[in-house]
Design goal:
The protein is α/β, with parallel strands linked by helices and about 425 residues long. The chain is about 45% helix and about 15% strand. The N and C termini lie far apart (about 45 Å).
């Protein structure tokens, strides 16, 4: 059994319920636990638990009815001691500065745990993109990009897709920066369409990383994939790809969900049929399907649970009802620190987000490298490189977990924080 690490108590903690726990408080708490295990110098702790830069922009967008609406956006850089900042852009009505700060910090650790030379950043705009036309979405994207252009660049800060953003939005961002400087700058963003410098394998990379680490966890636990059942919360790009690849590996996917609810069939989900129904009707369903809530999906008696939606889905109010043997965090921050302790006490093998979903940023790194050298690799080469990096990182985190007798989250943070602290120490503090 992994040792229990006391969670520092903070008066500012928001009640630990889904959607209410402060993500930046959670991120700092996770860092503090790892810093304690590492015996990190207090001065270094003060540096690494805060974000380096926070940019808040408020900008006008011309709408289709010729009215002007004002929007607020963010770009946060947590740490850039190991290389340029890297992190996605999300469009969501609930985006806030604490969420973006947390995501930037998690990106720092994510890049460090898999050993790629980036620091962490994140961005977002407070908007419900479903309410915008394509033209309005393009106008918003280009204006937001112009506002944060003082920070981003191929050698400074490289955005990527995240919640409600995609390859087309990255294309608009790349074109906006290119127009400003007068020449094409493909390496300014990743996750672009292939025709303008995108990488083979990028669309499936995050889900592929989740699949690889899940299979590694099952192997470690002595569970054959054909004996494993899987439930996936959030069947967007990450969740769908994870489910599809685990199904191809022999696992039985028994439940998937979107924001409206979950489709459950203990005999197995027909993924293509379920997704096709969603495209046609807006609802996940198949011929034999029990509809559940997202909360009920989290408590299904499955081998593997993949929370691939939003933050704070597994919390102290429901963690004791989680029955899965393995939790693979496809989303960022789906489990609160309090829930971590409960899951550890139950013997759940949790693959933390900074390891599980690092496949996306790893292939983003490949894309950036390919853009800079203007030489592109084929998909099989990219998938092989990704597997090598993910398996090396998994084995390294598992080794630290066993050596220090801590759970996998703490082990991943120990690896990541140690690497960033070493880089910061070597570089020194600029006077």
């Amino acid at each position: 059994m992994a040792q229990q690490v006391e969670i520092p108590q903070r008066e500012s903690t928001i009640p630990d319920e889904p959607g209410r726990a402060n993500p930046f408080t959670n991120a700092q708490t996770q860092f503090d636990i790892a810093a304690e295990v590492l015996g990190l110098d207090p001065n270094m702790r003060r540096v690494l638990r805060e974000c380096k830069r926070q940019l808040i922009v408020t900008f006008p967008v011309l709408m289709d009815d010729h009215a002007i609406q004002m929007f607020t956006g963010f770009r946060v850089q947590h740490n850039i001691d190991r290389g340029p900042a890297k992190g996605g852009i999300r469009y969501h009505q609930d985006v806030n500065i604490d969420e973006v700060k947390a995501l930037a910090m998690w990106m720092t650790w994510k890049c460090a745990v898999v050993g790629i030379p980036y620091g962490g950043a994140k961005g977002g705009v407070i908007v419900d993109p479903k309410k915008l036309s394509r033209n309005e979405l393009e106008n918003l994207t280009r204006r937001y990009t112009s506002e944060i252009s003082i920070l981003i660049g191929p050698d400074r800060d490289i955005p990527a897709p995240d919640v409600n953003t995609n390859a087309q939005i990255m294309a608009w961002m790349m074109d906006t920066i290119s127009m400003q400087v007068g020449h094409s700058v493909p390496a300014v963003v990743t996750g672009k369409p292939l025709g303008i410098g995108g990488s083979e394998g990028r669309a499936e990379a995050t889900g592929r990383g989740c699949m690889l680490t899940t299979l590694a966890a099952l192997k470690h636990l002595g569970i054959h994939p054909k004996d494993a059942t899987v439930a996936v919360q959030g069947v967007g790009n990450v969740g769908y790809t994870t489910a599809k690849l685990l199904q191809q590996a022999g696992c039985k996917v028994v439940a998937v969900s979107d924001s409206n609810g979950a489709c459950y069939n203990e005999d197995g989900i027909q993924l293509d049929e379920v997704v096709r129904e969603k495209e046609l009707t807006g609802r996940l369903r198949q011929k034999v399907c029990t509809m559940l809530t997202n909360a009920e999906l989290l408590e299904l008696p499955v081998t593997v649970l993949v929370p691939a939606a939003l933050e704070n889905q597994i919390h102290r109010g429901n963690a004791h009802r989680v029955k899965a043997k393995v939790v693979c965090e496809g989303a960022n921050g789906p489990t609160t620190p309090e829930a971590d302790l409960i899951l550890a006490e139950k013997g759940v093998f949790l693959i933390p987000d900074i390891l599980a979903n690092a496949g996306g940023v790893t292939v983003s790194y490949f894309e950036w490298v390919q853009d800079l050298q203007e030489f592109f690799w084929d998909e099989s080469d990219i998938n092989q490189r990704l597997e090598r990096i993910m398996m090396k990182a998994f084995d390294n985190v598992l080794r630290v977990s066993q050596e220090k007798k801590v759970n996998m989250r703490v082990a991943a943070y120990v690896v990541a924080v140690d690497r960033v602290a070493q880089a910061t120490t070597i570089r020194g503090i600029y006077p």
